[in-house]
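Appendix B: complex inputs.
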Amino acid sequence: DAMVIQNPRYQVTQFGKPVTLSCSQTLNHNVMYWYQQKSSQAPKLLFHYYDKDFNNEADTPDNFQSRRPNTSFCFLDIRSPGLGDAAMYLCATSRDKVVSYEQYFGPGTRLTVT
Amino acid sequence: AQSVTQLGSHVSVSEGALVLLRCNYSSSVPPYLFWYVQYPNQGLQLLLKYTSAATLVKGINGFEAEFKKSETSFHLTKPSAHMSDAAEYFCAVSTPDGGSQGNLIFGKGTKLSVKP
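Resulting structure:
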């Protein structure tokens, strides 16, 4: 089945220790998104890639970076995690940047910062 | 600018009862609207979407939603709740233009509880 895969599902890191979360997709979609979702809140868009073009949301902290080496993979790097970065991180894809196209979400990676 | 408001952060129904989750939108252009469901520790799954083809939209798991332009609403309903419907539900609107085209703006979510 075509899908969006996130690894690992659960990640524990130490305060200030860099961490990388991974997302892959078999849908061959052009757009890949990263969201941060804290408990009982809506997902908050951090950034997205449209093909190789990176689009950062204005309020995304510099501590968050992303890489998309090819169509299938996208990574979220947190350079110096703080306690406030503990959250569920969701990856999503969309066929293209068209207003009527839905997004397909992965299962998420729950990040704990100790 | 687009926005979405979900009335009621928590809705509780009995098994077999009607489910009604409310969503109102604000948009300067004809909106494209989505309902997603999220089970605990899972990603979001699309339930249904409105893209102007029909005002009554049927989705998965017996859910449907009706687009009412006069009320700027897109409420989600299901005639008979199952225990398995217990989850969090998000209404979203898609941004129509510029570099953000296709980005989703989510409501704050409604957590649905189903009592036996």
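The two ends of chain B are 41 Å apart (CA to CA).
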